[in-house]
Structure formats: C-alpha cells, structure tokens
Amino acid sequence: MAESAQEPVIRIEGLRKSFGSHEVLKNIDFEIMPGEVVTIIGASGSGKSTLLRCLNLLETPDAGHVWFRGEDLAAQHVNVNRLREKIGMVFQGFNLFNNMNVLDNCTLAPVTLKKASKAEAEAEAMRHLEAVGLAEFAKASVTSLSGGQKQRVAIARALCMKPDLMLFDEPTSALDPEIVGEVLSVMRNLADEGMTMAVVTHEMDFAKNVSDKVVFMDQGVIAEMGEPNRLFTNPEHPRTREFLSRYLEDTQGASATA
Ligand SMILES: Nc1ncnc2c1ncn2[C@@H]1O[C@H](COP(=O)(O)OP(=O)(O)OP(=O)(O)O)[C@@H](O)[C@H]1O
Ligand SMILES: [Mg+2]
Q1: What is the mean pLDDT of the chain?
Q2: Which of 52, 137, 176, 223 has the fewest CB within 10 Å, making it most exposed?
Q3: Is there a contact between 30 and 12 (Cβ–Cβ < 8 Å)?
C-alpha cells in the first residue's frame, strides 16, 4: 500500500545517551525511509557507533524514542531478539564463528532462531554467497579467508535473516586498502537492490556516491544532514567544512593534477 510505503523504517526522536557524566548523544532526531541509504560520518568519538547501536538496542537510550516500522522500541513489551532478527549488523571485526565453515556461519541463525529447515537455509545461504562472490568457499573454514572475504561472508550471513534494515559500523576500517573495494562493491550492489541501510564510514567516496542522505555527527549532535552532493560541495556548518576539508582538498588536488 502506498501509505505504508511512506512509513519510515526507523524514526528517532529526542534520543539521548550518556556513559557516566559524558553525554555521548544529545537529542538526536532523524529517520530512514524504505530503500534509503544513510551514511553517518564524523570524527572519532562523535557518537556514530553509539547511535547505530541504539537502533537495534545494543545500547539502551536514556531518553527519546526509536520507532522501528512504527513500533516504539522503548516500550516494555518489545522483544529484543525478534527485533534483531529484522535488523542485520555488520561490524568492523567480522564477528564470524571461526570454528564453523562459511555455510554453517550463514545457516546457524535461520535454523536456530527462525526454525528454517537445513535445506531451505542452505539454499538461501548459497544465493547470498553467490551474490557476494563466495559460493565456491561455502565449505571453506572461515580462518582460511582474507579479511575482505570474511566481511563479505558477514554480509551474506546477515542477509540470510532477510532483514528490513542493515547497519554497518565501519565495515572496511580493518581491511587492507587493496581489498576495501571488494566489500564496498558488495554494499553498493545491496544499495542498488533497494536494501535500507545505515552505514558508519570513513569512506567519503562511498558516502558521496552511494548514499541518499549523509549525517555529519559532531560531539554527540547531528551538526548537519543532507543530500550528499550538496553536503560535499557546499557544507553549511563550519565543523562539516573542517571535517571534510582534507577529503575535499585531496579530491580537488587529484582533479587539478589529472
Ligand atoms: N560502553 C561505553 N562506556 C563508556 N564510554 C563509552 C562507551 N561506548 C562509547 N563510549 C564513549 O562515547 C563516545 C562516543 O563513542 P562512539 O564509539 O559512539 O564514537 P564513534 O563516533 O563511533 O568513534 P570512532 O570513529 O572512533 O568509532 C566516546 O567518547 C567513547 O569513549
Ligand atoms: Mg565507532
């Protein structure tokens, strides 16, 4: 229905989070619409990971609301496990089970949590492994894979749960520069297929070229948020300008010497 298509996947209002006396998130408001790719950028310690972790209740907000598909996650009756089945998360450190092969990593949650049959779960897993270019590694041990391959398995594994939303927290930061591209390309394909995504990243080209909306965080607030072309070419906030200056100088330098 057209009406439900307009409902945000996630809506946040007045979100606050402190650790001790340190207020890490100060009154955050934003929403992610179906199919939208939102990138979250900002300096180290600005609260990006904490914000992402509040979206699937890995952190409990101190105040404010997080609605997931219209359901208020602050409500007492929310089943956190069911919620996490609908929200896939990919971290910097892969978090795969090293004692299992690639395929078993992908089928574990669908079989144990969703009660899928082994055959059904394996067929689904093979589809996702195919899509990330790793079908031939299905029976390989996770420990034999490169960092880029592990991260692609982590993405395939998350997709096996058929999530409504995918969260990525610096998925390429632990990778050698030459393999960052293979993971970003998988993420770009996912975006092209219409997956709703929130991505914390330092990959400014990805933020600029793939996202629909960029959120710039500074010391616990959203200092600026907007359409990537505008934000990258004409940042309004002095802190955004400062943060992006190195990237902008690099890209302008590159085009000047091209
Ligand atoms: N569990 C915790 N206990 C105490 N302080 C925390 C905790 N998690 C985060 N913080 C603090 O909250 C602030 C924001 O952290 P957060 O990890 O959200 O930043 P970030 O923007 O993701 O940074 P980075 O780019 O380095 O990953 C930091 O000062 C951090 O030290
Ligand atoms: Mg972080």
Answers
A1: 92
A2: 176
A3: yes
